[in-house]
Amino acid sequence: MFIRLPSVQRLSFTTLSVLHTLAGQGPKRLTDLAAGEQVTQPAITQMVAKLEREGLVERRPDPSDRRAVLVRVTEAGAAIVHGRRADRRAHLTDLTAALTPAERASIAAALPALARLAEVNRHLAEQHRRN
């Protein structure tokens, strides 16, 4: 449901995922982005070059290794991420307005378990990245 929300700019799912990753997790090396997005190094390099031309990301030297670069989201890229989040919230607000009070209460009661599920997923993803 969220993936298919209309957007002003037509960006691919992977492109949006890269922007969301950089906005949420901070600057990343190209190799880390490729691994996280499950694409090849040439594919992520090409995507980052396109995003850079569009002013949505920028490359900077990695302070821990001057031979490497870090990709970071720009203000324009972050604005796309924030705009999509606002669209999602508005869409969910419209959807939940159509539910009965009992249905909304059921969703509210499930929120702690869903938050825990997201926490477990983050933990497992971190473990996977370390291995």
Automatic annotation (TrEMBL):
Q: Tell me which domain of life the UniProt entry assigns to the organism this sequence originates from.
A: Bacteria
Q: Which PROSITE patterns match?
A: HTH_MARR_2
> Which keywords are on file for this protein?
Plasmid
Q: Where is the HTH marR-type domain?
A: 1-116
Q: Which residues cross the membrane?
A: none
Protein name stated in the entry: MarR family transcriptional regulator
Q: Which organism is it from?
A: Actinomadura luzonensis
Per the UniProt record, the lineage of the source organism begins with: Bacteria, Bacillati, Actinomycetota, Actinomycetes, Streptosporangiales
